[in-house]
Amino acid sequence: MRTFLHVSDIGDIEKALAEAAEVKKNPFAWQHLGRNKTIILIFFNSSLRTRLSSQKAAMNLGMNAIVLNVNGDSWKLETEMGVVMDGDKPEHLREAIPVIGSYCDIIGVRSFAQFENREFDYNETILNQFIRYSGKPVISLESATVHPCQAFADLITIEEHKAAPRPKVVLTWAPHPRALPQAVPNSFAEWMNAADVDFVITHPKGYELAPQFAGNARVEYDQMRAFEGADFIYAKNWSSYTEYGKILSTDRSWTVGKRQMDVTNNAYFMHCLPVRRNMIVTDEVIDSPRSIVIPEAANRVVSAQVVMKRMLEGLQN
Ligand code: AN0
Ligand code: CP
């Protein structure tokens, strides 16, 4: 595996889930793969889970992990090509990336959507420069349009908790005071469309996801109808794709509470975290025994470890 952005990068889903179960059961069994290998994790944006779970996954594999916070610890990096660098950024990605590549075997990059230009974001301009100029395998740790480590962990969590062979999974938009990226819902939709689940997306009009991610998923604009009989509720805020980066609604009736959960099939509640309580979800729901947000976050180590393991195996050949 040379890149990890899309569900297609993981290949056969059943095989990936079986490998995840194996890695979870025996996390230290592949330490030989990471011996004398280094991963560099680059963060252009904040993180709690991704930076800790990626480091833990690397350690489980016997790898060294180096973390760089671009906006705190290093030179600020220019990302646009062809600009006169007379601003506040003393170094260009074009040099920084091959330099980083020369110090490591695998690179992970977190670089959120910037919301200035949809084409710049949806072309994954920054991540693609890492892929092109580093010469190393690259993992998206949430880039402009995708968060595949999260979606893979979500799929593992659904697999572990499902009671029916083909559960009903509902992705619901929920209100939030700030404009958030579409990366998490994009990847969740992409992975659920590929998995063996009955997948429904619900959101107010204007929050349609990009077609390449929404695929053929059923979209239901009535949240209560979407929730009927659901086995898993996956809440997330995102800003508009069509009116790019805009907040079109702050309707608090979309906050996931007991009213909506009561029409489900005693559904589990999921969220990638960080979550704003009583905006996205009520205390009552997130504190209930059906909330699986903590095991979901714990599975971030497992998904990251499967991805890194496959990349290390690729380096052996
Ligand atoms: C980010 C987002 O919505 O993409 C990260 C989620 C993993 N969330 C916030 O910025 C609050
Ligand atoms: N879910 C997730 O990626 O969390 P962080 O932003 O804390 O890494």
Name the features:
5-stranded parallel beta sheet; alpha/beta; binds phosphoric acid mono(formamide)ester; 15% strand; 38% helix; Rossmann fold
Write down the overall mean pLDDT: 97
Fraction of residues in β-strands: 5-15%
- Strand order, biggest sheet? 1-7-6-2-3
The CATH superfamily title of the largest domain: Aspartate/ornithine carbamoyltransferase
Order of SSEs: EHHEHEEEHEHHEHEHEHEHEHEHH
What is the global morphology?
Answer: globular
How many beta strands in the DSSP annotation? 12
CATH C-level name of the largest domain: Alpha Beta
Distance between the termini: 11 Å
Largest beta-sheet details: 5 strands, parallel
Write up this protein.
The protein has 317 residues and is of the alpha/beta class. It folds into two domains: 3-146 and 299-316, Aspartate/ornithine carbamoyltransferase (Rossmann fold, 3-Layer(aba) Sandwich), CATH 3.40.50.1370; 151-296, Aspartate/ornithine carbamoyltransferase (Rossmann fold). Helices cover 38% and strands 15% of the residues. The protein has 13 helices and twelve strands. The chain has helices at 13-25, 31-34, 49-60, 93-102, 118-122, 125-134, 148-161, 183-194, 211-214, 223-227, 258-261, 283-286, 293-316; strands spanning 3-4, 38-43, 64-69, 77-78, 91-92, 106-110, 138-140, 168-173, 198-202, 218-219, 232-236, 268-270. The strands form three sheets. A five-stranded parallel beta sheet has the order 1-7-6-2-3, sandwiched between helices. α1 packs across α13 (293-316), α3 packs across α13 and α7 crosses α13 (293-316). The chain is globular. The model has no long low-confidence stretch (mean pLDDT 97). It binds N-acetyl-L-norvaline and phosphoric acid mono(formamide)ester (CP).
